[in-house]
Amino acid sequence: MYFKPHSYQEYAIDKIIELPAVGLFMDMGMGKTVSTLTAVLELLFDYFEVSKVLVIAPLRVADTTWTDEIDKWEHLGELKVAKVLGSKEDRSKALSKQSDIYVINRENVSWLVERYKERWPFDMIVVDELSSFKSPKSKRFKDLKKVLPYIKRIVGLTGTPAPNSLLDLWPQLYLLDRGERLGKTLTSYREKYFLPDKRNQHIVYTYKLRPFADQEIHKKISDICISLSAKDYLDLPERIDNIIKVKLENDVMNQYKEFEKEKLLALKDTDITAATAGVVVGKLLQMANGQVYDDEGQVHMIHEAKLEALSEIIENVNGQPVLVFYNFKHDYDRLVSRFKKLEPRTLQNSQDIKDWNEGKVKMLLAHPASVGHGLNLQAGGNIIIWYGLTWSLELYQQANARLYRQGQKNSVIIHHLVAEGTVDEHVMKVLQTKDKGQSTLLEAVKSKS
Question: Which of 43, 62, 66, 357 would staple 105 via disulfide (CB 3.0–4.6 Å)?
Answer without folding.
Answer: 62
